[in-house]
Amino acid sequence: MMLNLVPFVSVDNMMKLVLHLGIEQVMVDLAAEIEADFLRWPAFDKTPRIASHSDVGVIELMPTSDGETYGFKYVNGHPSNMSRGLQTVTAFGLLADVATGYPLLLSEMTILTALRTAATSAMAAKWLAPKGATTMALIGNGAQAEFQALGFKAICGITEVRLYDIDSLATEKCARNLAGRGLKLVKCRTPEEAILGAQIITTVTADKQLATILTDNMVGAGVHINGVGGDCPGKAELHRDILLRSSIFVEYPPQTRVEGEIQQLPPDHPVTELWQVMAGQTPGRSSADQVTLFDSVGFAIEDFSALRYVRSKLAATGFCTQLDMIADPDDPRDLFGMILRAAT
Amino acid sequence: MMLNLVPFVSVDNMMKLVLHLGIEQVMVDLAAEIEADFLRWPAFDKTPRIASHSDVGVIELMPTSDGETYGFKYVNGHPSNMSRGLQTVTAFGLLADVATGYPLLLSEMTILTALRTAATSAMAAKWLAPKGATTMALIGNGAQAEFQALGFKAICGITEVRLYDIDSLATEKCARNLAGRGLKLVKCRTPEEAILGAQIITTVTADKQLATILTDNMVGAGVHINGVGGDCPGKAELHRDILLRSSIFVEYPPQTRVEGEIQQLPPDHPVTELWQVMAGQTPGRSSADQVTLFDSVGFAIEDFSALRYVRSKLAATGFCTQLDMIADPDDPRDLFGMILRAAT
């Protein structure tokens, strides 16, 4: 083994890997990996992501470790990027060996983040949404939308997705991409139309403002809300009144209270940690008319799970290259000599 | 410009770049870049590095931003690595555009960290060491030693370096690598012998313990101590009594109080920020018999400066490749469609 070489999954190789495994299968697998890691939640070093904010966006580092493997993701969020022809969110990540500090994997994570975000949403809905839910409203039809739709199909058995976006071209794009994949797709002209008959409402818009895409009178009893788009300070999608009558489930409270929908609420407003529901420590949905809200912001453990999943698939599929990223002189004390010898 | 491609400096290209520019010249240039950035210290977002500790080492992320450019470094510190034939410290880093969050450069930083650490040490000594210093004791002759020796030669005019290591093979290695480079080299068998006649004492050992390589009676009046090796909790090189009679200069107090030699002192023990000396806000060395100590732990701004320097050299030298790291669909909302089209 060449110690200087780090396996690298490029964007091209990530697309090939995902297509090889199947997009829905990848999300089913990711949900299982994330669930397994959420079930050993106390084993992880956890910290709110480290954010560097500017007027136009944020750049974040999201580290975690289970004591054997360390992982982190670099991710940005720049809502104004779209108008410049750029991705709102781009990301890459790394796994390293805790015992040596040497990197084990470098991977693109723009695509992987889209997959793990949808897998996490659907995993949460499996625990929180009303039993037998078949219809989902999908408000916001941008880069994350198709992943959400297919994740909920594959993991929760959703059969109908009702699409709405403030820009009808986004809805057209989304419907086109999802056509022929076994989902009934309904293009809607208003949010009100989109939520008709939906047991699950997913909001996944990108504006950096307190936009309140859903107002209180739109949310009926028994609905599960999957709030994905409100994920940084000053960015929310749900009216405060909805929050006040919802049972709120979160990933990691110290991060969600800063970034999530609950930034609109007092810091001591009760929330439930999703992993505790999965571990049987606290109830999830406890009545048919309860409004449940998964206030999703994305947490480092989900990226850790996703990176480990990708790494586990590389030996058999070969969708990676080797990066000469770690200086590794024969004598570890002779870094200088290694440079000198490179001249000859 | 292909937006998905990120310039990448491999270990091999970093060695070629450094050899092309000249090792000493690179450190002179880095000291100038770091000094320029220290002089605009208040312009930077600063945070203590985010450390993930284990029994055998630490993995750290070191982010900073000047509002236009964001940078971070991944670095580990595993003293036990050497006995396994691995580097104690490995690193890589990234620059990104604050306006878009898109990466601008990915680079190996094991070699670059060694260079910037020595450049920072020598830069600090330029402000703090006694005028006309010509002799340096270099205690600890491992991976960082040659860089320190040549950095002090190029930046401070040091002509004699007195080498000591608990392992004489390390001293032999260091002397061999430095031979013929214009330095008088004296191999010493004890720390006491190494400090004879030295106006500057550099300690750069790697043991993770409170090792007190220097005791109080070894440090004479007027000496400048460049304490490099004590750089994480539980790792120190200097006896507390030395600290108590030294004027202590640090990079970023919130980080140094946790990681540096001053972890041995009360949290309100007075220290001076090096940038304030450089900016003329506070005096540096104020008398000939003062003992000055640069309690160096390494700060994110130094890596930021170093990465920007490397980036500035790529267009003319071409020592980089292009990594397909950022998913960049033609329509930024159509990440899913980009994956689908990769199948065809």
List the helices and strands and how they pair.
The structure is a homodimer of 344-residue chains.
Chain A (H helix, E strand, L loop, with lengths): L4 E5 L1 H11 L1 H16 L11 E4 L4 E8 L3 E9 L13 E7 L5 E6 L1 H19 L6 E5 L5 H12 L3 E5 L3 H11 L5 E4 L3 H4 L5 E4 L6 E5 L9 E4 L8 E3 L1 H5 L1 E5 L2 H7 L12 E2 H5 L12 E5 L4 H13 L1 H4 L3 E4 L10 H8 L2
Parallel strand pairs in A: 1-6, 7-8, 7-10, 8-9, 10-12, 11-13, 12-16, 14-15, 14-16
Antiparallel strand pairs in A: 1-17, 2-3, 3-4, 4-5, 5-6
Helix pairs in contact in A: 2-3, 2-4, 2-10, 3-4, 3-10, 4-5
Description of the structure:
The structure is a homodimer of 344-residue chains. Chain A has 344 residues and is an alpha/beta fold. Helices cover 33% and strands 25% of the residues of chain A. Chain A is built from twelve helices and 17 strands.
Low-confidence parts of chain A: none
Number of strand elements of chain A: 17
In terms of DSSP E residues, the strand content of chain A is 15-25%
Distance between the termini of chain A: 24 Å
Overall pLDDT metric of chain A:
94
Backbone structural class of chain A: alpha/beta
Structure annotation, total helices of chain A: 12
Radius of gyration of chain A equals 21 Å
The strand order across the widest sheet of chain A is 9-8-7-10-12-16-14-15
How would you sum up the global shape of chain A? globular
Largest sheet of chain A: 8 strands, parallel
Oligomeric state of the chains in view: homodimer
Portion of residues in helices of chain A?
A: 25-40%
**What is the helix/strand order of chain A?**
EHHEEEEEHEHEHEHEEEEHEHEHEHHEH
Main interface pair? A-B, 82 and 82 residues
